[in-house]
Amino acid sequence: MGLLIIDGHEAEADQSRTLLEVAVELGIEIPTLCHYKGLTPYGACRICVVETIWKGKSRLHPACTYPAWEGEVRTDSEMVRKARRFIVELMLAEAPDAVEIREIAEKLGIEGTPFRTPDDARGNKCIMCGLCVRTCRDLVGAGALAFRGRGENRKIANPYGEKSEVCIACGACEFVCPTDAIDLSLITDLTPKPLVSEFDTGLVTRPAIYLPFPQAVPAVPVLDDEHCLRTLLGTCGVCEQVCGPDAIDYDAEDVEDAIQVGTIVVATGYDEFDPNEKPELGYGMYENVITGLEMERLCSASGPTMGEIVIGGKSPKDVVFIQCVGSRDQTVGNEYCSRVCCMYTAKQAHLVKEKIPNAAVTIFYMDIRAFGKGFEEFYDRVRKEGVVYRRGSVSEIYRRKDRLVVRGEDTLEGEPMEVEADLVVLATGLVARPGTDHIAGLLKLSRSSDGFLMEAHPKLRPVDTASDGVYLAGTCQGPKDIPDAVAQAKGAAAAAIVPMSKGKVTVEALTCVVDEDLCAGCKICVSVCPYGALSYDEEKKISTCNEALCKGCGTCAAACPSGTISMGHFTSEQLLAQIVALIGGGNG
Amino acid sequence: MRHVKDIADLERARREIMKGRDPDARVVAICCGTGCIACGGLTVADAFRSEVDSRALASKVRVLTTGCHGFCERGPLVVVQPAGILYQQVKPDDVAEIVETSVEGDDLVERLLYVDSASGEKIVREEDVPFYKHQTRLILGRNGALDPTSVEDYVAIGGYGSLAKALDAMTPDEIVATVKASGLRGRGGGGFSTGRKWESCLKAPGDVRYLICNADEGDPGAYMDRSILEGNPHSVLEGMVIGAFALGVTDGYIYVREEYPLAVANFTRALDDARAAGLLGVNILGTGFSFDVAVARGGGAFVCGESTALMASIEGLPGEPRPKHIHTVERGLRQRPTVLNNVETWANVPLIVDKGAEWFAAIGTEGSKGTKIFSLVGKVNNTGLVEVPMGITLREIIDDIGGGIRGGHSFKAVQTGGPSGGCISEDLLDLPVDFDRLAEAGSMMGSGGMIVMDDRNCMVDIAKYFVGFLKDESCGKCTPCREGLRQMHAILTDITEGRGEERHLDELEYISWGLEQTALCQLGSTAQNPVLTTLRYFRDEYRAHIEEKRCPAGVCKALVTYSVVADACTGCTVCAKKCPSDAIEGEPKKVHGIVQDKCIKCGICYEVCKFDAIAID
Description:
The structure holds 2 protein chains of 2 kinds.
Chain A: E1 3-6, E2 9-12, E3 14-18, H1 19-25, E4 49-54, E5 57-62, E6 67-68, E7 71-74, H2 78-94, H3 99-107, H4 131-140, E8 146-148, E9 155-157, H5 172-176, H6 184-187, E10 209-210, E11 222-223, H7 229-233, H8 238-242, E12 264-266, E13 270-272, E14 289-291, H9 292-299, E15 318-325, H10 341-355, E16 360-365, H11 375-384, E17 388-400, E18 403-410, E19 415-421, E20 423-428, E21 430-432, H12 436-443, E22 470-472, H13 482-502, E23 512-514, H14 524-528, E24 534-537, E25 542-545, H15 555-559, E26 565-567, H16 572-582
Parallel strand pairs in A: 1-7, 12-22, 14-20, 15-16, 15-20, 16-17
Antiparallel strand pairs in A: 1-2, 3-6, 4-5, 4-7, 8-9, 10-11, 13-21, 17-18, 18-19, 23-26, 24-25
Helix pairs in contact in A: 2-3, 9-10, 10-11
Chain B: H1 7-19, E1 26-31, H2 34-38, H3 41-54, E2 61-66, E3 78-81, E4 85-87, H4 95-104, E5 114-115, E6 122-123, H5 130-133, H6 151-156, H7 161-169, H8 172-182, H9 194-203, E7 210-215, H10 224-231, H11 233-247, E8 251-257, H12 261-276, E9 292-298, H13 307-314, E10 338-342, H14 343-355, H15 357-361, E11 371-378, E12 384-389, H16 394-401, E13 411-416, E14 422-425, H17 435-440, E15 449-454, H18 459-473, H19 479-496, H20 503-518, H21 522-525, H22 529-537, H23 539-547, E16 562-564, H24 574-578, E17 584-585, E18 593-594, H25 604-608, E19 614-616
Helix pairs in contact in B: 1-7, 7-11, 7-14, 8-9, 8-11, 10-11, 10-12, 11-14, 18-19, 19-20, 20-22
């Protein structure tokens, strides 16, 4: 194989690859517009032209289609720059409203265009790169878009100019368009439902294959089977094409594994309170009413806005926080305090002041619970930074012109009040997850009145449960902040190690005994046993008792309709004999 | 025609056909090419048939409707054989006289003979007419001798003999070597060596190959391929079958535009007849070799004449070119090795196989061999299809064959090579017709369009016309072609409408550079030729438009005014009567005048005035 030299960098010539692929690998930047990794190279926009020199002869070729043959290639020669300037100048005239083309022009040092914008191109953004058409046809498999007309009359439109019947409103055309020229409402009557990033609390969209969150372990993308075009329709397949290590397997299915374990630590976490349950706060109605978790992503440097607090494209000037949303609130059935909202609100208020120093921040609170280490000091610091803490209860949020009005009562002054805001953050509380019931049933755990899982003893056994070998950690047991969750998790882990390192457990002296000859296999005992000690033996068709789990409570014995189950050392005969002895019966 | 069993049987079949024909019988060959049909050729043919029937001559006289003879200027054309008498501009009313005088009798109908414009003499025989005399009609010459819908006619003049020779006496490699040695170059425009193309295709990996005949002729004013397909479809088919044998191809296509209905009909008929005669399809001439051709009809997009766009169109995709870094001989139709040649190229193949590479290579110049067909149109006296040996000068074509410039005007330029070709000025008229020499002059051979222009043609307007044509016919896929041509056309429009600026010439050259360097296909990368050549040879005209706001040829309406020359005006009132906007006033026998506010500059007064009393400034 011959030698390919791109801008002085050496590479192996390989006809099966394109110059662009090789250049990208070498870290050489070549501008592209009509190129997209998963699509067949098209060579239409011509912005990627490079100078090829073969036998002393210079020619321009588009890097996206030109094979990586041997010879010399220059990607930034005078000839290349002149050609790119020509192309960009034509595009500036063709698509005067395409911001992206102006940005490319700026990057290439092109100030304007000598060419005129034709009358029918005013307001145009489309540069006819065809990515939308090709994506819809080759990847989505719908073919809802096509080129119409030729030459200067070339347009991108639905066949026959009618709204498409085959468009599935997947939005892929919009996604690939380099100049934001697609108006989906002209293509279909369907409304696209973009997939939103769960981790970024719906603030941004995500593709059907994605890394759940930046620190995910293992750092491997997951395929959203319910939305992947390849699994749904058999089309697309871009991820497979672009994956270098060939790691995509569309046929992979979810697998259920049965694992034998000695102990279980339940750490299923919590859910954020749904503020839609308090419609008076306007969440879901006003774009600038958000939850604490959404605010958290908005402030995060790795979040969708890179940590910039912007809402509706603007930086807010008046920010109001409302605490105890869904906590200490009998109207929604949550009497408990969520324990973290006071401090995360203080932290977020601090971040607002830091990022937008002239913003006015007001926090409405019921009581401030700054009980942890350093918490009170932080609360003091935030107040000194100018954050206004106002004790009050908010009755409603509504819009006045383009601003929000928070209305309620100042409970210190006993006066009604109104505050205008550009951004309202609801300090939403913590609630038990909907799946808690399922877990509790599976592991025979109890739940406390707040819906969270119940520990064996509130003071003495805070990580244990009534089921031996099952432990609790974190917010599944009740609202708590990170240090508390970590502490409890460490405790649960340590507790879980004890029976495993012993290798055996002490069986209760008193356990139930099933008379195998009498048991009819009605399974009533299995359903009533609070410790999961009884199970049904499919082979013998009778109930059997796991003595390691049985606490000898006797529920099963009482429930057994045929009296088959008795309690060890407490058979009816033994009890009767004791009664007889007590009343002085017997021989006399 | 009966089925031909094997190679030897073809000659037997030919003799059978000849036996049924009287060699002394009179043949009336009526040109029914598209040009003559437009002038009433078909009614003339009908008139001959009924005249022959009514005189009960059917057994002695053959009325032959043929394809294009070439001399379209003088249609409908009738040639009476074997004497070879040419009657021109024949009307149905003339038929009885012709039959009586020249078919039944041996006299001439003098008034229908061609009169040589130079000598004023009447010329009897077709071959003596200057228009034909200076040509070398290897391909077109056979058009007048056969009915295109008759395979017997083609076989009778030795047709399919080359195929028989190729199958019988040559190996595929020998055929390729012969075509290569002949020096035949692609007649579609590219001028690439046909033999080398075939050789590369044979070397390309893959067991399935395709062969295509490109009949998507789309240059304005060009109809060479059309006339071959309409007039002698079997010659093209024979070339394709020979090519298929040489290349080991079993499937071929002909891509022909739907706007050529007669070409489609005649070629389809030729396919059916050839199949029935055992000259196409399974087991051709009993040799075990099989090959068939499918007709792919195009929608008439000019760009579909480009090889990759054509192949995309055959595949059922939009007719858009794709990059050809890897040539179509390696990766063509359906990504398989494909040989694509133009109609005229295929029609040359049987001649080369029949007469040998040396014979062919003896015709023409060092780099360009054989003959080339041109459609000679524009301001010449004799327009039509001409077939000339390579190396003939443009002057010979225009003056000797074309009979010089019409109406006493002076020659200004000749445009060759279709819309992407260039305009050549008078000082280059002695340039030999040759692929390389025309390219050096900034034009190209192209597929054979030749438009002659005189002093009444504005070169800026001509450039605008061709750029406008290409702008409309560009597929619009790549940016430079779609947008560059649009900008180029806008600038040329500005210049022709009096808004020209000094910077426009630089901009035209800048766009030209960009088109040549960055356009995806040949349509775009040669589209600047009409502009560059007119800038090169007629820059003064551009300057006059820009600096003086004047169109020297008086074509650009925005820049001209019509006026009456008082001394010449006789007051005949013709101009006033014909003026569509009532802009001419004047009483009979008195000098007329043009009201400039009303004048729409249509030029009708100029055309109708018999006294040259209308002036254009």
